[in-house]
Amino acid sequence: xxxxxxxxxxxxxxxxxxxxxxxxxxxxxxxxxxxxxxxxxxxxxxxxxxxxxxxxxxxxxxxxxxxxxxxxxxxxxxxxxxxxxxxxxxxxxxxxxxxxxxxxxxxxxxxxx
Length: 113
Fold this sequence. Notes:
Blueprint: H1 3-14, H2 16-53, H3 60-94, H4 98-112
Helix pairs in contact: 2-3
Region (Disordered): 89-113
Protein name: Vacuolar ATPase assembly integral membrane protein VMA21 homolog
Pfam families: VMA21
């Protein structure tokens, strides 16, 4: 990599919009990771409690219902994470990079002269 390429790459990394996007992505990853760790446990034990105390279901059906609830929560979190990634990718496709916007503006000003 020559000096010009490394300078361009460093400018890209130092761009506040890119830093904001990276920190936003890390924040969402942290949120979904935390949800993936805590919510299935909460679903399992709350379902187990409800089945035992309110519906008086014990034994294997209680365990099966609790596991199904935890699995559904995990799948819901994965679905929401994938949808978030899809929306972010669609948003990135719709907004042109800053360099292209600058070039478009320069080309138009040259054409008008």
